[in-house]
Amino acid sequence: MSTIVIDKGGPRRKVKYGSMSRDRAWALRWSYFFLVLFAIFSLTPPFYMLITSLKSSAEISAATNPWWVYHPTLSNYVELLTSNQFLRFFWNSAIVSVVVVTITMLISIPSAFALARMKFWGSATLATGVFLTYLIPDSLLFLPLFKMLATVQDWTGIALLNRWYVLLFIYPTLTVPFCTWIMIGYFASIPKELDEAAIIDGASWFQTLTRIFIPVALPGLIAATIFAFTVSWAQFLYPLVFTTSTDQLVLPVGIITSLIKGDVFNWGQIMTGALLGAAPPLIIYAFLMDYYIAGLTAGATKG
Amino acid sequence: MADVVVRPTSAARAASASKRSSLHTALKRKSTAAFLMTLPLILLIALLVIYPAFYSLHLATLNKSMQRFVGLGNFEFLFKRDTFWMVVKQSCIFAITAVVFKALIGFIVAHFVHNIPAKGQRKWRGMLLVPWVIPPAMSTLAWLWLFDPSYSAFNYTLSYFGIGPIPWTGDAMWARFSVILVNVWYGAPFFMIMYLAALKSVPEQLYEAAAIDGANWWQRIWYVTLPMMRNIIAITTLFSLIVTFANFDIVRILTFGGPLDRTHIFATWAFRVGIEGSDIPLGACVSLFMAPILAVAAIFILRDISKRGHEA
User: Fold this and answer.
1) From the CA of A7, how many Å to the nearest CA of chain B?
2) pLDDT for B46-98, tens place per residue?
3) Pick the CATH number of A82-302 from 3.10.310.10, 1.10.3720.10, 2.102.10.10, 1.10.260.40
4) Which of A34, A107, A271 sits opposite B40 (nearest CB)?
5) Residue A260's beta-bridge partner residues?
6) Quick one: which of A10, B56, B146, B214 has the most CB atoms within 10 Å?
7) Which pTM value belongs to this model?
8) Which residue of B has its CA nearest to A60?
9) Of B56, B112, B287, the CB nearest to A31
10) The complex's ipTM?
């Protein structure tokens, strides 16, 4: 008797299990199919940048198959990387981004520490306020900032408009609020016992910050640094408004205003420039993807 | 049992109370130190964010040479211009359509990535996030080249299917479509990554329970996934709505607001009027129209934060 029951039960269960796994396999195949489609959609523009950057002007104007390069050449790269103007843009971008990252960290780490740990009058309001200022977009502020800079320039006689260094003051408004906000999240997640132990052992607040908080929250710090760097590297509106002469421009604005001359589009060079401009964030992303994503998602999950 | 539990806590409370009183003098110094540490942040936000925001309210009431107070004259002038209403309409169409498609595509792609074995997810996630990583000004140049009137690679490909050359940026309707397409391309990965993080946080048991109760895939999404992701969906959509409303790079580079100002949105038109037309007050006026959406977002976020405060 018992053997018959088992025999009956066995196959039935097996069949059911088999159909379920077949469903799974189909779902998987469809998932891969659509993922390939979306990946093609995502990667077409960067791929096309690369293809075009390897073409000579003659090949571009010959209008052969645009998706393939028949006579690859590095002449566009050589030309751009030996052009003083382009190197100037690159240098301006690099120095602005690095200095802005430093300023951002110097401002946002102490404030995040204070807001996360040292409760004082108005600290909760300030933390919320920091997040709200992050939401104020650059396109709302560029006109008043432009007028303010012009006024300060008139009063003090210090040249501010059309100077790259003014971006060092302006960019932190974009990076500091978000970096502070995610650092507050990371600092708040550190167990209180850790810094209480340090204080009891006689550490000052400064020592608690440098010896405990910064090392423990290092992943958050890296995420914030990456965020600050990519934002200052990619910023387009402020440099477009505040700088105009070619020796003061940063990379994105430089490529758009100097490589596009009137109606003559040298697409090989433009795409090379765009690819070189996209390279630093892409390289950082390739090596530090997990930190990059942690920084992206921290804002929403902790907010 | 109860005694055993109560005694240690009361002891601990007494200990912490005595510790607190001994640290009382330190606390006084602490708040001063904390204030000093946040001072640079407060100064930065006050001087370069809050002040300009209110200053633009003042600017909006001046005449073009910024010497005479004209009250609401600039607004009156704007309301009489057809271009302004076109910009309002286009901004709303642009932002809402783009955000809806970004959210939908992000949601769908996040599910596909979540479906495949965990081993391969990293690779796919890495590829799909590339559009978000490239500076938008740079990637829009690539799109501009893809949309080029005479050498468009899309038109080249479409011609094999017998579809005639499409005026991607030349015709008003197509130009509107193109700027939205580029914005969706750029922004959908952000939604994807957010939703993927949210999907990972939904406990597997809920799906098992739903499956046992006989829920089909649609019911599982509607009754399990969406309620669990509600917070993230709300905050991501809100955030994206602000950023998309305030978008500048894509429209500026792709269409320059053209053809015939048909694709201008608030930011690009404010730039055109304020910087290129050197009428700063009028430009400030235009960009102030982005404020209502900000106010709505602020209210929602503040409500959310205070709700969390009550729960905690």
Assistant:
1) 25
2) 888 889 988 888 888 887 777 777 778 788 888 888 888 888 888 889 988 99
3) 1.10.3720.10
4) A107
5) A265
6) B56
7) 0.83
8) B151
9) B112
10) 0.84
